[in-house]
Write a structure and sequence with these properties.
The protein has 207 residues and is an alpha+beta fold. It has helices spanning 6-9, 15-24, 32-49, 82-93, 97-126, 147-151, and strands at 2-3, 51-57, 71-79, 129-135, 159-160, 166-167, 171-179. The protein is globular, with a radius of gyration of 18 Å. It starts with a strand and ends in a 28-residue tail after the last strand.
Length: 207
Amino acid sequence: MAAFFTEVLDRLQTFDFLERVRNKYHFNDAQSDELKAVAEAMQPLLQKEAFWERKPYHVCSSWKEQKNPDKKYEFAVMSLGNSLDRLQERYSQSGFLMQSYMTEVLACEILMQGYDAYSRYVLNKTGWHSLKYHFFGSGEAFPLDMLPGLLEEYAPQITCNAAFCMLPQKSVALICELTQDEKLQCESVCSGCTNPCCLNRMTDICL
């Protein structure tokens, strides 16, 4: 497993990052210090446990895209680690519900920036552009029941339970569709999402 993207984790405690999160999630000015304190508590946990991994993925032979030499696919996983889940649980059990929520939104923002860091890494290493992210359960081609098998080799660092929930909870898995055509490039992480009104959506459009 590779450590999570350093350039992303290094932003966690910066003023610009925290202010953007504060404004996006409508925390008031007086909550800035609380948000910063939560970020400070998260930082060493992420630096120790957060990771990501990628490997080639071969789509079903019935897919016409497989015959296209200008496209290929990768399976990628990212996780922020078990200690972050435990931190959030301690906040909740101690009655610090706002700090628990702050942990949630900060983790979401780190993962969202991880998508972009992953795409840039692949481009720099291979010259291939991310065209689209396919999430399990978002379509017939990638049903949820594929996920446990794909995660087997990553256990125990990351697993999937009987309800197809990934553990650690702050984890994502996806199939990245890659292209050599830089005119196409990324349709964005949100193009494969089934929740158009998600607070993390990378567009202002909410259907």
